Amino acid sequence: MAQAQASKFKNPLVNWIDSRLPIFTMLDHEYNHYPMPRNVNYLWAFGAIAGIMLVVMIATGLFLAMQYSSHTSLAFDSVERIMRDVNYGWLLRYVHANGASMFFIAVYIHMFRGLYYGSYKAPREILWILGVIIFLVMMGTAFMGYVLPWGQMSFWGATVITNLFSAFPIVGDPIVTLLWGGFSVDNPTLNRFFALHFLLPFVLLGLVILHTAALHVCGSNNPLGIEPKGPQDTVPFNPYVTLKDGFAVVVFFIVFAAFVFFMPNYMGHPDNYIPANPLVTPAHIVPEWYFLPFYAILRAIPDKLGGVIAMFGSIALLLVLPWLDTSKVRSCKFRPIYRQFFWILAIDGLVLGYAGAMPAEGSWLLIARIGTFYYFFHFLVLLPVLGKLERPLPLPNSISEAVLKGGAHAKPMEKA
Amino acid sequence: MAQTTHPPGTGGHAASGDGSTRRDFLYLATGAVGVVGAASAAWPFISSMNPAADTLALASIDVDLAPVAEGQAITVTWRGKPVFVRHRNAKEIEEAKTVNLGDLRDPASDESRVKKPEWLIVVGICTHLGCVPLGQKVTDPRGDFDGWFCPCHGSHYDTAGRIRKGPAPANLVLPPYAFTSDTKIRLG
What we know:
The structure holds 2 protein chains of 2 kinds. Chain A contains 16 helices and 2 strands. Chain A is an all-alpha fold.
C-alpha cells in the first residue's frame, strides 16, 4: 500500500499537498536553501533578468495578440489601432518591442559573463548548449515578431532572411517556397509567422526550465571559477541571491522604463511605420540591432552560400565551445593572456555590430571582413592553442579563503 | 513561512514589547508596496481588454424613421446588437395600454416604455439567454400577444416588448435614445 511521504511543512494544506506532490519541498530546496557561491557578482543576476524578460514578453504578447490581426490587409492597421485606440495599447506594444531589445541585452551580457568566467566548461557543457539553443530559438522568435507589424522593414526583413535558405543548392528554392507558403512573402507567410511567434515563447519557457534544471545539478559558477568546497564557501539562495537579483531587476527595469517612456522608437527603425510594399525595397535595409554582428558576417563573405554558412556557423561554433577551449582554468581572472583576447572578442562583437548597420561597401566592408576573420580565429585557433600554451596564475585554495583575504575568519555561515 | 525566510545571524530578532520585530514590520511594508506595484502593473493589461476608443466611437447611431410605415418594423444594429424599431398601429397601442399591470411578470406601463406612442424601440435580445426573438416581419410568429416570440425557449412578448409568457425574467431592454426631430432618433 502506497503511503503519502512525510512533509516538514506545518501549514496543514501545504503539508497535505506537499506529501502528495512535493512542489513545496522542491521550491524550498531549489530557491530557499539552495547554496550559491558567496562571491557571485552582479553579472550573475542577468540570468534571472533574462527569465523575467521572457515572462514580460509572454504577458504583453498575449494581450497584444488579443488585438492583432494576422492578415496582410489588416496587420499594419491593427497595430496602429493598438497604438491609438486600445486602452494602454501603446504601453503594451512599446514594452513588447523594447522588451525584445532588453531581453537580448540581458542574454548577451549573460553569455559574455559565461565566456569570461568559463561557465561553459565541465561539468556545465549541457547547461551551456541549452543556453545556445535558447539563443537560437530567441532569434527565430524575435525575427518572426518583427515581421508581424507588416511595415516595410518587416516585409523586407522577412524577404531577406527567408531568402538566406535559397543559397543552398538544389534544396534551397523548395525550402524557401515551403517557408513562404507561396512564391513570395505574403499572407500565408504572415499567418504562419504569427502562429510560430505565439508558440515559440512557450518552447523557450520549456528550454529555460531545462536550463535551470541543468544549472541546479552542478550549481552556479563564480568569478573565481573554482567549485565551492563546503558551506563556508556558499550562502543560501534566499535571502542573499533573491534580494541581490531583485535589486538588479529593479535597476534593469529603470533603464527599460527609460526606453519605453522616453525613447520608445530609439531601437526601432522609422521605415517600419510605412506599410509593407512588395514592389519597393527601402534604400537601406538593416535588421534589428541584436542581429547586426551576424548580419555583418553574412555580408562580409563575397559568396552567397559562403556568407550564409559563415553566419550560421558563427552561432553553431558556440555549441562546441566547451571542447574548443582546452584550458582547465575557468575564470579569465587567472588567464592573463586569454583575458586580453576576451576583450578583443567583445570589441570585435561591437565592431561587427556597427559594421552591420553601415552600408556594405568601402572601408566598412573591409572592417567587417577583419572582424569576421577575428571571430572565427578567436574560437577556432586562439582558444584551442592558448589552453596549451598559456601559463595560468595560481588558483586560490577556496572561495572563502580568497574573498575573506587569508581565511582567518572563514567559518561556516550559520545554518539558515 | 516567516521563520524559514529569516536570514541567519542578524540582530533582527530583538523583540519589542509586543513580540513583533522591526524585521516583521519591514516584511509587511515591503509586501504591501509589492502588492500595490503588482496591481499597478496589472491594470494596463486588464484595461486593454475593455472596449477600445474606436469601439466606443461606434456606440451612438442616428436612425431615420420616415420610411417606416405604420405596422412595419425595422431592425438596426447598435453596439453589435439588434434594436427593434416598430411603428405600432392603433390596435397594438390599445392592446399595450389596456393590460392590467398586476398580471405582468415585470410590471411596466406602456407610457413608461415609449417616448411617442406609435414608436416602440427595444433591444431585440431575449432577456432569457440572449437569442433574437421573431416578430419583426409580418410573416413571423409573434407569440400569443402580437409582439415577439423567442424560438429558443418560447418566451412571448407583447406589443410593448413586455414579457408575458415563457422563461424570460424581464421585459425587452429599452436602449437610451432621443428624438432629434419628428422622424429621427439617436440611439446611445
